[in-house]
Amino acid sequence: MASAPALPAAPGTLAVIGVLWRRSLNEVVRVRGALLPATVAPVVFLLGMSGQFSRLTGLEGFPTDSYLSWIVPLSCLQAAGFAGAATGANLARDIEQGWFDRLLVSPVPRPVLVAGPILGAITRCLVPTTVVLVVGFLLGAELTGGLLGLLALYLAATAFCAVAGLWGVFMAVIFRTQQAGPLMQQGVFVAVFLSTAYTPQALLRGWLEGAAAYNPVTYVLELGRQATVSGIEPSLANTWPGLAALGGLLACFGALAMLGLRRMGA
Amino acid sequence: MPPLDAAAPAVEVRGLVREFKGGIRAVDGLDLEVRGGEIYGFLGPNGAGKTTLVRILTTLLRPTSGSARVAGYDVVTDADRVRRSIGVALQEAAIDPLMTGRELLRMQGALHALRGSEAKRRASELLDRVGLTTAGDRRVGGYSGGMRRRLDLALALVHRPDVLFLDEPTTGLDPTSRAALWREVRSLNDEGTTVFLTTQYLEEAEQLADRVGIIAGGRLEAEGTPDVLKARVGEPMLIVTVDDPADADAAREALRELGRVEPCAPGGTPERVVVRTVRGKEAIPPAIRALDERGVAVASVEVESPTLDDVFAAVTGSRLEGAAEPESAAA
Predict the structure, then answer these.
(1) E strand or H helix at B86, and its extent?
(2) Where are the domains of chain A?
(3) How many whole angstroms separate alpha carbon A66 and alpha carbon A72?
(4) Between chains, do B60 and A264 touch, taking CB under 8 Å as contact?
(5) Average confidence score pLDDT of chain A
(6) What residues of chain A have any CB closer than 8 angstroms to a CB in chain B?
(7) pTM of this prediction?
(8) Is ipTM > 0.85 here?
(9) Is the dihedral of CA A147, A150, A155, A158 positive or negative?
(10) Cα dihedral across residues A48, A49, A51, A52: positive or negative
């Protein structure tokens, strides 16, 4: 048996997360216009939806008279979710091109390997989220929840981005191909669609009413809506279900992502 | 890291099997041992199981059964320690095109616990070593294939690994880049690094490897130094072409002391005299002297040695794709 020589120290978790975070930001910093589609799409969605459904606020039980204020948190969440899901597409590309093998043969714990890119996605999602908010406010959305509400909205958006990122990572390590990219985006789309995205729970009917009630994204949205929806004031009662939902989603998709990563290699 | 004990195996594989879906065995009961400080060439055609073995040894793939230890550590139960001991350059030089060479090296440093200033210093050192100092601050997307390969090698060396795995390191490279990479591999080995090299190029195995393992169908079919393997196939042939076919018998008589003279085959070339000799190229000067002493006029003298492809053909029954003609030395 080989006389094992002294091994080098284990890599520092924060240092590794830092370099992988910086690398993931290259996707937008070094590729001209890379942030444009991710920013323009939610703004267009915001403008389109607020124009088409503005009269819904006249329905009894609608908690605000500004549909724009209702839809701004949804657009923020979608923007953040798609930014998160892009982590999976980028990882699938790294797997296909062999880059991820370079990371897997390093003595870095698997969760750390995905923490950097997820943090990168969270950083990236701040741009479209903020642009959507600014456009919303410029068009007349109200900041009814003040600073606390704004914090709640950013918390909902960034944590949802992380959830979508872990979902993307799970898909990437299962399918190991960029062709799974649409599946990652669809996951976010469906999760948001089956919530109280367009109307409040009280106005939903049929199967969607049940789906939205059990969909954790509903509660994440309610958390974010404390910023702009006058009928949903910043309060513990409006906050904890969203936090619990995010905690559950992060734990669930985090575990799935780790299980998938464990399947890759020894 | 200090080099591994030369007497101890740097890589030790016992009864290794890797089965994929559908019962396909890419590695099928493999046993091998690589000593510390040697260059071990793993030779085989595409699909022979070379890359699967490298992926198991580098902890990227779990074996179905059997065991493998690298630098003294089990690749399954002690994967983290294996990862700290090895450097890996896989088949495709997977390098992020958006980053510069220097950034990639510093990042690799962080992945292997090098602190900021140390990683910075090591990056400069390695860029210099692989001749990329001037290109170091350019994005890798603009590098040529050879530059990428050299950077890939540098990345594998950041943490001064004990055992270096190179999976077909020169595939697709031009002869100049290939020669540069070979020089670097030799130099690393001179410094004590054990190198496990897979290749489908006979010349590469011959030029670099202290020992060669031939794999086909997931099994190790033959193993030894290139000379020992070639000797198993047969002795080199000294081929003398005389000016006048009438002198052929005199030539055979003159060359008898050098080895086993082959009889002239019926219907063969009468001016051609073939002698099997272990002396190979060294037999050319005495052959010329002996022929001169007997007054035999010679048109040409050449030596044909068995190649690793001959060995490959002998042990597997097929030849490697693109294998060269038998090696020859002429006078």
Answers:
(1) strand B86-89
(2) 13-265
(3) 10
(4) yes
(5) 92
(6) 1-12, 15-16, 18-20, 23, 26-27, 30-31, 97-99, 101-108, 264-266
(7) 0.84
(8) yes
(9) negative
(10) positive
